[in-house]
Design brief:
2 copies of one chain form a homodimer. With 394 residues, chain A is α/β, with parallel strands linked by helices. Chain A contains 10 helices and 15 strands. Chain A folds into 2 domains: 148 residues, 3-Layer(aba) Sandwich (Creatine Amidinohydrolase, Chain A, domain 1), CATH 3.40.350; 231 residues, Alpha-Beta Complex (Creatine Amidinohydrolase), CATH 3.90.230.10. In chain A, strand 2 and strand 3 form a beta hairpin. The longest helix of chain A is centred in the middle third of the chain and has 24 residues. Chains A, B: It holds the Pfam family Creatinase_N. Chains A, B: This is Ectoine hydrolase DoeA.
Amino acid sequence: MPAAQLPFSSSEYDRRLKKVRSAMAAADIDVLFVEDPSNMAWLTGYDGWSFYVHQGVLVFHDEDPIWWGRSQDANGAVRTCWMADDRVARYPDHYVQSVHCHPMETLAALVRDRGYGDKRLGLELENYYFSAKAYLVLQSELPDADLVDATALVNWQRAVKSDEEIVFMRRAARISERIVDGILERIEPGMKKNNMVAQIHADAVRGMDDDWGDYPAIVPLLPSGSDAAAPHLTWDGRTFETGTATFFEIAGCYRRYHAPFCRTVFLGTPPQFMKDAEAALVEGLNAGLDAARPGNTASDIARALGAPLARAGIDRAARAGYPIGLSYPPDWGERTISIRVEDDTVLEPGMTFHFMPGLWMNDWGLEITESILIKPEGPAECLCNRPRELFVKD
Amino acid sequence: MPAAQLPFSSSEYDRRLKKVRSAMAAADIDVLFVEDPSNMAWLTGYDGWSFYVHQGVLVFHDEDPIWWGRSQDANGAVRTCWMADDRVARYPDHYVQSVHCHPMETLAALVRDRGYGDKRLGLELENYYFSAKAYLVLQSELPDADLVDATALVNWQRAVKSDEEIVFMRRAARISERIVDGILERIEPGMKKNNMVAQIHADAVRGMDDDWGDYPAIVPLLPSGSDAAAPHLTWDGRTFETGTATFFEIAGCYRRYHAPFCRTVFLGTPPQFMKDAEAALVEGLNAGLDAARPGNTASDIARALGAPLARAGIDRAARAGYPIGLSYPPDWGERTISIRVEDDTVLEPGMTFHFMPGLWMNDWGLEITESILIKPEGPAECLCNRPRELFVKD
């Protein structure tokens, strides 16, 4: 089956595999099992909404990866992975969500059959979808193997984006701009939130010209007024009202690559405290963008952001961003670096972040954010190009 | 903070808590930790897209549950849970996705503080979001506790729906019908798939009249032609073509309750093999619906379905359905019963399933499915009301 729709060049996949193998060698890992769907896709091209059952990719030092998963999803694997069809391994359907047997029994058999039953097997212990039970079954089925924590081993290799990836993220950013433009154009008092979401979804998926939109890893978030204190409430059928702010947390997505972008819209005349907060936040964003350059650290961005906020009496006490790129639900972050004072990771050109200093106070909220690219020199580039301000619509 | 938007009556939440406590008692569990967002919402009302960080609900025998999660999400918990505000516990933001510390350290402290450090703690070991690492941290932090596998303990209590829940599922079914009607009305050769998805999303979220649509736990799936062999491929920017079948796997969702509903559309004149498959599948569906009655088992449905398929030479080798109701991504199933010959669970009135005998063959696919309700007597009721057939559009 030809993998007709591979999003990237074969040299790009080669590059990724080499990076991961180097990291495996550094951690003395003989074979790596990757269950994170983002890591699976980044390494092999695999793309499908099948991560609700156990599946993964085995990465070896000296042979091509093996995709392993549910029998019916093997058809998707041969259609989307770059490896040959005989690198697709499937387990029978009666293992799915069974109380009698567990899919990891078949993975363990595969590992043993390949001669790795007494070797060092890397596992993503802190990851969505790789359950505690999966770990316990592997432990029991591979008593002679050394199970090593390889959490985020692949994620870290994804931090610096290739030129091919940056192209995708720029396409995602065009979609993000389209979504935000549509919000600003359509919002008005009395409009129901779910009807706004209908438009946001439609803009996101239509995409821009031939760049069709993929599903973002998080649904649109758009709480208003005092509910905007809660960053992760989803929509309902209530209406937008004059005299309230609503933040819109959205992302365009192009072939699983995201450019998250948040703006807040106030209907009517914003109160002074919100204008003050906006001024401090924008000053902090600009200072953070200026600090977001190679050689500086993630914590430098956080500190630059924090100073004007502190002067305005705003204590966020939350991280201010995370790396972005290829993602699947439930998160569009890469779960490695965090933009916060505790994180001294040194910034490198090609890193991409959602610089996300949302203000979630006791009874109001304000989000103005940027997806950024660390440049070889100078301040970070914002992938989206829209005014960095509280939008006001009378 | 008043929980103004609670979807269910307080007696309904009481009923649920009592059922879970009985199941805990039967398993000799002193305190239960629930990380599954569907179980969290079913027990407490909690609703938010925050399941990408560790969070959960502690269920006790003799005091109200405690919601536990990230600091910034506590604002969402006090807004959506029925418990008093002092039943919301939060951990500081620097625990999020950190390599230095783990949120489960704070959960363990909470368990110890409440006097359960040496008791039997139930955990959902096979569940999305409760990671292997989470388990290992709890094990290390609670050396005197007895960690018990309570996988699906709550899920099983959800199997029989209350009248209040059935009302929600009927609303979801109206949305499902609207989506399928929209597909059939709009599909034509040359239409791009992503543009169709834009309409599907919009119909799903607009909902029906005042019943606003929530986000389904799975995105729309609509592979065509030979790609329909792969059940979980998502869309792209290619067009629908004359002479091919496309299946549409969708669900309307009302306040997190789902009514999945799949239909296949053939553009042009379907080949005889597909009409034969349709006939066998519809015969199997009708036989399965007739077998889906109290006292029979899940396997009875599977066998009734399987006979006409076998006569037509079709070997599915996959389960034919699963319970449905309240769900969050990545799955709208409840992960308890499976409609397959290995599952002898006895059917009870009020159980709801997605009767889902998708045909995913080597180079084609066909989906005709029903969301069903087990009635006190007689065959199952289909929640959606649309012709049970392969739709053909010339």
